[in-house]
Every structure is written in structure tokens, then in C-alpha cells.
Amino acid sequence: MLQRIGDLRRSSSDSQGALTAFQEALAIARLFADQNPGTHTKRELAVNLTKIGAVKREQGDSDGALAALEESLAIRRDLPQTDLTKWQTDVAENLETIGDLKLAAGDKEGALRLYEEMLGLDRTMVANDPTNLQWKRNMSISLNRVGDGKLALGDSAGALADYEEGLAVRRSLVEAEKTVQRQQDVALNLEKIGDLKRGAGDFAAALKAYEEMLLIARDVVAMDEAKDQWKRNLAINLSKLGEARAAAKDSAGALAALEEGVAIRLRRVSPFGAASPQARSPAPSGGRTSPSRSRRLATSSRVPRTRPARLPPMRRCSQTTASLPRPSPTLPTASAMSRSDWKSWPK
């Protein structure tokens, strides 16, 4: 009951109320585990610790989150593997979040070790149940995490290989079930690959990835025109494509993409479908427009939520090709942050 109350409070943005409920549930779970040590009581203890870790992470208490999640992981590792899939999903759930926390804290090697262990579990689950689409999607997410870890350590070639393998998996998922989520997954990997190619100076390969990503964005908007998030993603994609075209000396193509992206953004901020006088005012020479806040992605349960992310500022078209910066190889891109790349786990 306390877990349910905590879940409801968390979904209502009452993080402190949720934390209080989960901590009360944890105290009871510890008591039961001490009095009746067994698989069920230990599993409940780990569930409460995982929930506490998730809330503390949302509150910005990374140390508290890490402590709770590492305790949960230690418990889950020691549980009997009578239900192998359940054991694997529970352990992988903690590995993912602890890895994310370690990567954010600068422990790149530690994060990569955890991501690689998580990927190993996902590969085993897919091998044992190759028709399970969720396990395949989870494996693609783990491949991205491993790629992110390698990229943070400067291994661009290794990261690219993981992103490309993840892309192949995600293309197969679209073939099996063409949904907005599946298409967004493909677009995210195309973006990661395009960013790496562009950063390496391979503008032709970057353009190819960005152009396919843009086609997907247009398709998604056509499928669900009422959702503002898809229009935001489309504008971001047009910005990336425009910059890549400019870097490839295609000034006309760059201008067309950037202007279309600006038009979409201005329609989004004006209730009348046109820019306000302030929005139409040009930015100072060589400057940038003010970035806006994007969605928020939850960090705990591998269930898609949202996290704040900045939309990339629109650059003036007067910039020269040489002045266009390449994307950072260690930071998540804005559109990557605006898409969901988290796992869903059965409880």
C-alpha cells in the first residue's frame, strides 16, 4: 500500500511525499526481511531501495540515489535465479541507473563496465526469447549506453559500432511494428551516428543520416499532428541538417532547412501561427536566440518519462562554414534528450 501511495505521489510531482512513503515502506521491508529472510522479502527490500534511489535522483541527491541503488543491486545479485528473466531484468534495471549516475559524476570507466554488463544480460534475454520485441528494444538501448560510455572515453570508433548495431536492431523493430516510438528510436540512432560522422569531418555520411532522420520526423508529425513534441523534434532536425549542409558548402540547402526550422519554432511560440513582433526581431549580429527548455526524461525505472533539455540555439545564416562548431563528442545532443531512450520493465 505504501509503495502504491509513493507511486501516485511521484506521478503527481510530489517527490518528497513519494520519498516519505517509500522510506516508510523500506523500514517495514527491512523488518520483514530480518524476521523472515527469504527471496520474497529480499526482493521487496530491493524494490523499495530502487524506488528511493529513483526519487532521490530526481531531487538531485545523486549520492543518496547511488547508495540506495547499489544496495538494491547487491541484494538482487544474491537472489536465486529460479526465474532467470526476472533476475536479469531486476539486475539490469539497477545497472542502467547506477551507470547513468556514475557517468554523470565523471566515473566513465565505472559507467562503461556497468553498461557492458547490462548489455550482456540483454543479449542473453534476446537469445533466449528472440521474438520478444521489448527485450530487443532494451538491447538497443544498452548498445546506445555502451556507445555513450565509449564515446565519453574518447573511443569514437567503438561508439560508432555500437550505435550502428543498435540502429540495425531498431530498424528491425520498425519492420515488425511501425509506431511513433519505434520510429523515434531509429531517428535517435541516426542522430548519434550523424553527429559522430560530422565530428569526424565526414559530412556526406552525416548528411545521409540527418536526411533520413528528417524524413522520419516529417512522417511522425504527419501521423500525430496535434503533438507539439514532434514538431519540436522536426525543428531540431532541420537545424542539424542545415548546419551539416552549410559545412558541406551547400549554402542554398542550408538556408532552406534553417529557415523552415525557424518558421516551425515561430509557429510554436505564437498562438496565432505567426511570430510576434519580438520574435521577428533579428538576434544581434553573431549572436544566438535564447534557447528554450524541452522535455524531461525520468531517470529510474526505464519507463519513458521526460527530462529538461535545451533546444539548440538557431545560428544566423551569415555564419561562415568554418565557424560552425562540431557537436561535442561527450555531451548528449538536444534532440537526443528530447526523445525517450529508456527501458520498460515488467514488475
| Main sheet properties | none
Strand content: under 5%
Give the number of helices. Answer: 14
State the separation between the terminal residues, measured CA to CA. 15 Å
What is the number of E strands? 0
Secondary-structure element pattern, one letter each: HHHHHHHHHHHHHH
Question: Mean pLDDT, nearest integer?
Answer: 81
Rounded Rg: 22 Å
Description:
This protein is mainly α and 347 residues long. The chain is built from 14 helices and no strands. It has helices at residues 2-11, 15-35, 39-58, 62-78, 84-104, 108-128, 133-152, 156-176, 180-199, 203-223, 228-247, 251-269, 277-280, 334-337. Helix 6 runs antiparallel to helix 7 (133-152) and helix 11 runs antiparallel to helix 12. The longest helix is centred in the first third of the chain and has 21 residues, at 15-35. The protein is elongated and about 75 Å long.
Layout: helices, strands, pairs:
Layout: H1 2-11, H2 15-35, H3 39-58, H4 62-78, H5 84-104, H6 108-128, H7 133-152, H8 156-176, H9 180-199, H10 203-223, H11 228-247, H12 251-269, H13 277-280, H14 334-337
Task: Name the descriptors.
347 residues; 69% helix; mainly alpha
Write a short abstract of this structure:
The protein is mainly α. Helices cover 69% and strands 0% of the residues.
